[in-house]
Design brief:
The chain has 764 residues and is α/β, with parallel strands linked by helices. The chain has 31 helices and 24 strands. The protein folds into two domains: 355 residues, Rossmann fold (3-Layer(aba) Sandwich), CATH 3.40.50.2000; 270 residues, Rossmann fold.
Length: 764
């Protein structure tokens, strides 16, 4: 979520008033804003997307709730010591959190372990351990519409009789100390991005948020006029018309068997009725195609922790496979591929398959990704129910990612096309009229230059590094992962360095290359990549032959509040994943909206950015998905490229020989070995095209006017990438609710009385 203060002032239309009031108190608002801690309750794109979606849902007047876990410790703080990443605990609640309100009156029990008893009256889950879920509510204000939605985060609490009620021989002190075991559930965020780690505590977290949330939703449904009771039992027929639940990846997939458990075991609905309601309620968003990221929980772990849920999953699977067998008799291979249970070695539950079978809609997050989902990853399922599969291209909120972080540019745009674009970003197309307006071109360039100077000052103050604000700011910020290919950027830096040294007199367009992002603490290769970047920086930044032509900065502790500073100052945005690996990307959209040009592959939303702006207005290079597939078919041989490209050979040899690690020449052996013998992401295959494309970038940067015109064309084409557009599509195509542009009257104005005037009953 990042910080909340400035975003709240903007959405309430109070920023200028607050700035002025605080100034009159002899304080500086910006200084105050810097004191607030980021809420870092997610890892990367997936968590930030949810935050943008909450802003858009409130702005569109949807009755929507965001549910998650109130981690005591969020994503770790990253320190760089001697070029290595070191993790520190993110004690973000140390000074309290003024935006949250604990709601103990809505506390709910969540059950674990135990066993299942079967009787004539049905199944009962008994002898469980209970953990309490305490909700904390954070307001989510819409933009200037007097709407405030809720983000409800659950915190784990031990019940007061924890470890004291049963056969306890009287070690009271130990029993109280053991309360920590229950409360550890919401202690810390698992720091993996795009990687599955099958730990028991993680599965507990996933079920904890799911079980608490579903009880909350059902309580709310029963309290509404729709939860009509005939005699004693609630009628759930209208449930899917009143409730839509969107599964943000497979992490909340246990919601499917949990809702079935509630309907069948507790509410005593017949299975078929319960399953029909469940499928109509859930929809699933897939966020990655990397096999190592897909959740596959060991059956024995699920059986130990959630025995009833395993039985329900088996029953779902049995009926699912019976259905497929009836359509494709004797196709055992198909049954194996489509099963929710993977045999062979340790039996596992494939959570993506559970989500597909248990949902009425499945979507990818960019056109190209949704195609890959349909034709490759889940092709059997798409063949069975093609109408279930959709695309919903990701977006970003223009409130935080333009108004808040780049007020200079936002104001400049408003002067030209009015202020309405903030709620309807498609209006940015009106900027096409000004692409040849010399004054506007100069003003856009001036805003960018001011942002660069401001960021350079920040870097000097915080990190004691001096950079040249007139150099090109070439920025690569995102989680560190092999598929995102920070290594390819690193090879380009080394290549530029070698070119400067080879011919110091030759004209060179000065660059400051800024790379930032966190590596999962257990991801050895990602940590080596950080060390390599810092080792290269050490050499490049201290070579007198290079001077101010090339500087390399590793940006420590990249997070939302730092993104808000660096993105508006960026000239060149690096989006260079291997085609077919980045589901969408959202940083790409933030840079585009803030006047940076993109160098990128035809991957994720880059494809649609090129479609919107015209491919000639992005620096597109490298293999397309088809080329990668073809290269896989032939077999990728890294040695071929190394032998054919002298500059690549030189760069790799320098890494290999210890040129960047003289004290330990073998330091980067693992990296070099990976690049030659098991590089799934084919860095060498795109190196040549990347370097040539970077030459075109430098050439254009020399012509400031032509560069800025291309920037304006990009901003004018960025309208599609508002999360408002994304949410409207979810609302119409999946949730079946109508967004309302109605501005609720403020509380000080009398409102019309009468019946409930809400046009749409469904809450997402």
């Amino acid at each position: 979520m990042g910080r909340t203060l400035q975003n709240t002032m903007i959405n309430l239309g109070l920023q200028n008033a607050c700035d002025e009031a605080v100034y009159q108190l002899g304080l500086d608002m910006e200084e105050l804003e810097e004191i607030e801690e980021d809420a870092g309750l997610g890892n990367g794109g997936l968590g930030r997307l949810a935050a943008c979606f909450l802003d858009s849902m409130a702005t569109l007047g949807l009755a929507a709730y965001g549910y998650g876990i109130r981690y005591e410790y969020g994503i770790f703080n990253q320190k760089i010591r001697d070029g290595w990443q070191v993790e520190e605990a993110d004690d973000w609640l140390r000074h309290g959190n003024p935006w949250e309100k604990a709601r103990p009156e809505y506390m709910l029990p969540v059950h674990f372990y135990g066993r299942v008893e079967h009787s004539a009256s049905g199944a009962k889950w008994v002898d469980t351990q209970v953990v309490l879920a305490l909700p904390y509510d954070t307001p989510v204000p819409g933009y200037m519409n007097n709407t405030v939605n809720t983000m409800r985060l659950w915190s784990a609490r031990a019940p007061n009789d924890f470890n004291l009620r049963d056969f306890n021989v009287g070690d009271y002190i130990q029993a109280v100390l053991d309360r920590n075991l229950a409360e550890n559930i919401s202690r810390v965020l698992y720091p993996n991005d795009n990687f599955f780690e099958g730990k028991e505590l993680r599965l507990k977290q996933e079920y904890f948020v799911v079980a608490a949330t579903l009880q909350d939703i059902i309580r709310r449904f029963k309290a509404s006029k729709f939860g009509s009771t005939d005699s004693v039992r609630t009628v759930f027929d209208s449930f899917p018309d009143q409730v839509a639940i969107q599964l943000n990846d497979t992490h909340p997939a246990m919601a499917i068997p949990e809702l079935m458990r509630i309907f069948v075991d507790i509410e005593k609905l017949p299975w078929d009725k319960a399953w029909d309601i469940t499928r109509k309620t859930f929809a699933y968003t897939n966020h990655t195609v990397l096999p190592e990221a897909l959740e596959r929980w060991p059956v024995d772990l699920v059986e130990k922790l959630l025995p009833r849920h395993l039985q329900i999953i088996y029953e779902i699977n049995q009926r699912h496979l019976d259905h497929i067998a009836s359509l494709f008799p004797n196709d055992v291979e198909r049954l194996r591929r489509m099963s929710l249970v993977e045999e062979g070695g340790t039996k596992r539950i494939n959570m993506a398959h559970l989500c597909i079978v248990g949902s009425h809609a499945v979507n990818g997050v960019a056109k190209i990704h949704s195609e890959i989902v349909k034709t490759q990853v889940f092709e059997d399922f798409a063949e069975l129910e093609p109408e279930k599969f959709q695309n919903k291209t990701n977006g970003i909120t223009p409130r935080r990612w333009l108004l808040l972080c780049n007020p200079g540019l936002a104001e400049l745009i408003a002067e030209k096309i009015g202020e309405d674009y903030v709620r309807d970003l498609s209006q940015l197309t009106k900027l096409h009229e000004f692409v040849d307006d010399d004054l506007f071109i100069r003003e856009v360039a001036k805003v960018k230059q001011e942002n660069k100077v401001k960021f350079a000052l920040y870097l000097e103050k915080e990190y004691k590094v001096k950079i040249n604000p007139s150099s090109m700011f070439d920025v690569h910020v995102k989680r560190i992962h092999e598929y995102k290919r920070q290594l390819m950027n690193c090879l380009h830096i080394i290549t530029m360095y070698n070119r400067i040294r080879r011919d110091p007199a030759k004209l060179f367009v000065p660059r400051t290359v800024i790379i930032g992002g966190k590596a999962a603490p257990g991801y050895h290769m990602a940590k080596m990549i950080i060390k390599l970047i810092n080792a290269v920086a050490q050499v490049v930044n201290n070579d007198p032959m290079v001077g101010s032509k090339l500087k390399v900065i590793f940006l420590e502790n990249y997070r939302v509040s730092l993104a808000e500073k660096v993105i508006p100052a960026t000239d060149l945005s690096e989006q260079i994943s291997t085609a077919g690996t980045e589901a969408s990307g959202t940083g790409n959209m933030k840079f585009m909206l803030n006047g940076a040009l993109t160098i990128g592959t035809m991957d994720g939303a880059n494809v649609e950015m090129a479609e919107e702006a015209g491919e000639e207005n992005l620096f597109i290079f490298g293999m397309r998905v088809e080329d990668v597939t073809e290269l896989d078919r032939k077999g990728y041989n890294a040695q071929l490229y190394y032998d054919r490209l002298p500059e690549l050979k030189q760069a790799v040899d320098q890494i290999k020989s210890g040129f960047f690690s003289p004290k330990d020449p073998n330091l980067f052996n693992d990296v070099v070995n990976m690049l030659f013998y098991h590089d799934r992401f084919k860095v060498f295959a795109d190196y040549e095209a990347y370097v040539k494309c970077q030459e075109k970038v430098s050439e254009l940067y020399l012509n400031s006017k032509a560069w800025t015109k291309m920037v304006i064309r990009n901003i004018a084409a960025a309208g599609k990438f508002s999360s408002d557009r994304t949410i409207k599509e979810y609302a119409r195509d999946i949730w079946h609710v109508e967004p309302s542009d109605l501005k609720i009257p403020p509380p000080n104005e009398p409102r019309e009385t009468g019946q409930d005037k809400t046009p749409n009953g469904t809450a997402a």
